[in-house]
Amino acid sequence: MTTTDVPAATDRRARTPGGATERRPRRRREGAAWVFLSPWVLGATVLTLLPMAVSLYLSFTDYNLFDPPRWVGLRNYTQMFTEDPRYWRSVRTTLLYVALAVPLQLALALLVALTLKSVKRGKGFYRSAFYAPSLLGASMSIALVWRAVFNDGGTVDNLLGTGGWVNRPGWSLLAVALLTVWQFGAPMVIFLAGLQQIPPELYEAAAVDGAGKWRQFVSVTLPMLSPVLFFNLVLQTIQAFQVFTPAFAVSAGKGGPADSTLVYTLYLYDRGFVASHMGYASAMAWVLLLAIGAVTAVLFRTSRSWVFYASEGDR
Q1: Measured torsion, CA atoms of residues 190, 193, 197, 202, in degrees rounded to the nearest 10
Q2: What is the enclosing helix (H) or strand (E) of 9?
Q3: Where exactly are the transmembrane stretches of this chain (predicted)?
Q4: Where are the alpha helices (DSSP H) in 118-171?
Q5: Integer Cα distance of 136 and 179 in angstroms
Q6: Using CA atoms, how far apart are residues 19 and 71, in angstroms rounded to an integer?
Q7: How far apart are CA 244 and CA 143, in angstroms?
Q8: Backbone phi and psi for residue 71, each to the nearest 5 degrees, phi listed first
Q9: What b/e string do you get for 199-218 counting C-beta neighbours within 10 Å, with b at 16 or more?
Q10: 180: three-class secondary structure by DSSP
Q11: Buried b / exposed e across 54-63, counting CB within 10 Å, b at 16+?
């Protein structure tokens, strides 16, 4: 090899895809990416993954928050499913709450979104006004006000003369559900964004074919809005299974009257922090996680038959 061939060979090695010269900049870029990601990775590990691992371990132990955990295997799970009637009452109450609150909330959110779509002036003000309850409704102060409204001698009692809903087993869960329905602002904003993406030409074509308002809603609006409806359905269902603050405030933390507002998370709180059975509460938390995952999987599975996408390849 001549002297003039050495720089050419070196240049070819520098340009080789697997060469060391190219690997060094790639490693520097990856290192910079991990530096920027490190706060998230650290937070996810310390605040999410590690507590989940500890919770999974505690679910197989007898732990009262004061003494060291004692391994008991599957006893918490067998006791939960076979020996605890209040557990199954909390499951039934939660399922009833989800079946009641989620459809009402989505229906109201869609109705308001359809109304705001046709508003010409002040749309931003109305959108903000309807969204505000979503920011305020999860607070304990609003839940306490809600309890006062539906209590004996409260606003509802004075207007309807039916007595306070809070102290009536057949009505107390409805009062809790209505607080969730009142927080329809978030799904309403998402519905409104989806409605604004529907091409007006579809409504014009439907009108030319003689379709009225209801027919346009069923044949145009709902199919075109189905991906947004599915998104809201999944999101609100997951949140409904985790409801806690309204039930805690309305029932004063007891789940009454007659366990009519004893939702799952409230009973979990009672077992873990009132009765100090943290191992049992950890087992309940993991069952809830698996149940939410199963329900979400079912929703995704059934969505293939009713969710419409513009491109069939997106299904």
Answers
A1: 80
A2: helix 5-15
A3: 33-60, 95-116, 128-150, 170-195, 216-235, 278-300
A4: 123-136, 140-149, 155-160
A5: 11
A6: 54
A7: 11
A8: -65, 130
A9: eeeebeebeeeebeeeebbe
A10: helix
A11: ebeebbbbbb
Per domain, the residue ranges of the chain are 5-58, 80-314
How is residue 283 written in tokens? 């087992």
Give the tokens for residue 30: 């990856």
Residues found in the chain: 315
Instruction: Tell me the residue type at 116.
Output: L
Q: Strand, coil or helix: what is 256?
A: coil
The pTM score is 0.83
Which residue bears the tokens 């749309």?
A: 123
Extract the tokens encoding 217: 């809603």
Give the rounded distance of the alpha carbon of 101 from its chain centre: 13
| pLDDT (tens place) for every residue of the chain, 315 residues total | 454 454 554 454 445 455 555 566 777 777 777 888 888 888 888 888 999 999 999 999 999 888 899 999 999 999 999 999 999 999 999 999 999 999 999 999 999 999 888 887 777 788 888 888 887 766 777 888 888 888 877 887 778 777 778 888 888 898 889 888 888 888 999 999 999 888 889 888 988 888 888 998 988 899 999 999 999 999 999 999 999 988 888 888 888 888 889 999 999 999 999 999 999 999 999 999 999 999 999 999 999 888 888 665 444
| β-pair partners for 62 | 70
Architecture of domain 80-314: Orthogonal Bundle (1.10)
Task: Report CA-CA distances (Å) from 300 to 21, 183, 227, 304.
Answer: 47, 24, 11, 7
Cα 136 to chain centroid distance, Å, stands at 17
Dihedral angle over CA of 239, 106, 120, 309, nearest 10: 90
Q: Which of 254, 260, 267, 235 is nearest to 176 (CA)?
A: 260
